[in-house]
């Protein structure tokens, strides 16, 4: 009789040794069941192998063992480097439609929305909104449509050339100012409604009307503006400077969100990609009052800092557009150091060289709270957030190693724009608003307001809390 072979898992020593008919029948039945199980397994095996292959493909290769550097970072408490997340097909945001763009305010690119009604309670003056720049309110101010409003004359005491404008109403009509009932002149006249002085007080041989407004404009900080003489006491009604407590705030740049509820977006690019260099700085003034060059040199002891210009070993002329392109392409960080540490003093070094390019600005100049008031959140690093240049360098090394953390400083991109603040539009609006509100105010000592506790030659931490606003501006 032919012996039936059973798989190992079905073998039984007792069944193997007992050739009775009953046992043979039992063994035959067991073999039948085993055969059917094998056939089912054969059918399922290809499916199981396919599923296993798909699982291995989605998981990717096994992670390599940690490098000695990674182990050292863990021992020092530095988080491990993570991979950046960028947009996938489900994350991509739909660009704003033409209607959405046109519905933006008139001072934005493509915006057409204009003020529709006169608001007598608009936030125009410092006392209306302490601590705010009121720029948007001034840009959206308009006069009643049913009134025949007279044209106000604004005398430019320094002439047209320093301002780059022409006389008459051209500036207001060309820019489509909501309040355009003003005219510029450089002719000395006793009948001007306002006189605008640029950077210094120019003696005028004109008889001043009691209602005439005198406005003092400063572009630079107190360290770089000439002092005013005794004739400047009790004569100026308005100030126009970069400081947020000015009557007419005139910043170097002004950031505005397209939608205040959307302050960051998912990135569609890696801002760290292909960048092999660390820190760059374009500088020509080697003797700044805040000792920024000395700070940069201390920083360079702990991280690569390439200094371009008269103060460093690298050269790239300002007239060469490739310089800033090189900054975007090769460097991760840029030293946006102002030449002075002064209240609210934030210039194009930060806005243009920094934020408008694909580098992360490291700032020195105004207080940290003052940068926070004018810049998109998480768009820069302030040196006073760190105890020393060495500590700052350690954080920059961490950012250099972690693309996700580095890219988190660029999520504000494309959520808004730097607007034209239309200075002369706002001057015209303020002259009209002052008359309508019967507002009279002047500075008893504009020099003290401008210079007192406004700047420091050390960092702000040594100065303590910002001083309260002085009382040199009084209401008449």
TrEMBL record:
GO molecular function: fucosyltransferase activity
Domain of life: Eukaryota
Domain named Fucosyltransferase N-terminal: residues: 152-252
Keywords attached to this entry: Glycoprotein, Glycosyltransferase, Golgi apparatus, Membrane, Signal-anchor, Transferase, Transmembrane, Transmembrane helix
Pathway: Protein modification; protein glycosylation
Enzyme class: transferase
Glycoprotein in keyword set: yes
Boundaries of every Fucosyltransferase C-terminal domain copy: 273-449
Cellular component, GO annotation: Golgi cisterna membrane
InterPro entries the UniProt entry points to: Glyco_tran_10_C, Glyco_tran_10_N, Glyco_trans_10, GT10-like_C_sf
Membrane topology: Single-pass type II membrane protein
Enzyme Commission number(s): 2.4.1.-
Family classification: Belongs to the glycosyltransferase 10 family.
Protein name in UniProt: Fucosyltransferase
Source organism per UniProt: Plutella xylostella
